[in-house]
Amino acid sequence: MGAEEKTNFTVDASKCIRCGRCVAVCAGIVIEQGEDGLPHMLPFERFGWRG
Ligand code: SF4
Q: In terms of DSSP H, where are the helices of 1-51?
């Protein structure tokens, strides 16, 4: 099971304006903007502060 399924991470593509702010402020650095412009959660072992 991937990180998005484990954390119930979902993005409503009809509402996301692909601004990238969620990527910029993610303290765990576990979100990246995909080629489609939508944020996606990267695989990770556990939540933690990486900044
Ligand atoms: S890119 Fe992130 S912060 Fe920007 S609208 Fe989409 S979900 Fe919200």
A: 3-7, 21-25
